[in-house]
Design brief:
Length: 162
């Protein structure tokens, strides 16, 4: 949806574990039957699902989360085997950078192959339509940071997925 209220309602009622184990894992399995390597990526809620999916879909070969992470207690780092990249906005009200700090520590302690990038930006900095304040956060598109993050993502997936 493009409506902030509807998006908030959908996100707050989503059963993240089921989405990661059934929907995303099913998609990864479907694609793996057709190609040798599969990556997972998502923005905001999709970024949170990306991280969860890498713990629940062992078939995935790499993942990139864009300014979204699940509650840390949902992340079983022992099951996270695929390389992970994260793009984080330091001015993000929806996913405060302190929660990213905690995620970084948890991933580092578990020896996860993880690279996190931080941008002096607001939530949804790679969304060309982002501008203003919604219920959750200030959103603002930033073309320069978005391009850098896309370039990093494409290089990462190129290296990890071939």
């Amino acid at each position: 949806t493009v409506e902030a209220e509807e998006a908030h309602h959908l996100m707050s009622s989503l059963k993240f574990g089921e989405a990661a184990t059934q929907d995303v894992r099913g998609a990864v399995q479907f694609l793996k039957a057709r190609c040798p390597k599969v990556g997972v990526t998502g923005f905001c809620m999709g970024g949170a699902l990306t991280i969860l999916s890498l713990t629940m879909a062992p078939e995935a070969d790499a993942g990139v989360s864009w300014y979204g992470l699940p509650p840390l207690e949902f992340i079983d780092t022992g099951k996270l085997k695929a390389p992970l990249m994260g793009h984080w906005a330091t001015q993000d009200g929806a996913f405060p950078i302190a929660s990213v700090d905690a995620l970084d520590e948890k991933l580092k302690a578990a020896g996860v192959d993880y690279t996190g990038h931080r941008y002096l930006a607001y939530h949804a900095f790679a969304n060309e339509t982002a501008s203003g304040r919604n219920r959750i956060s200030v959103t603002q598109y930033d073309a320069a940071w978005a391009q850098l993050a896309y370039d990093r993502t494409m290089r990462f997936f190129g290296l990890e997925l071939g």
